[in-house]
């Protein structure tokens, strides 16, 4: 696997992004299913899954920003 200039592999970050995206869309589906069936618990679990996936993506963005900044110096 090729390494970018910063020295960190890109495949792992891509896998994390895809995993978070899958969790987000799974949460969307769960929320919709809960809304259609009238089950509030399922609906809120779906919203929670979406929030977790978004938080993980934000964490990846912060981590990558620090890595890019460190790689410049």
UniProtKB/TrEMBL annotation:
Lineage: Bacteria, Bacillati, Actinomycetota, Actinomycetes, Mycobacteriales
Segments forming domain CsbD-like: 16-67
Name used for this protein in its record: CsbD-like domain-containing protein
Naturally occurring in which organism (per UniProt): Mycobacterium gordonae
Superkingdom to which the source organism belongs: Bacteria
Protein family membership: Belongs to the UPF0337 (CsbD) family.
Pfam families: CsbD
InterPro entries: CsbD (IPR008462), YjbJ_sf (IPR036629)
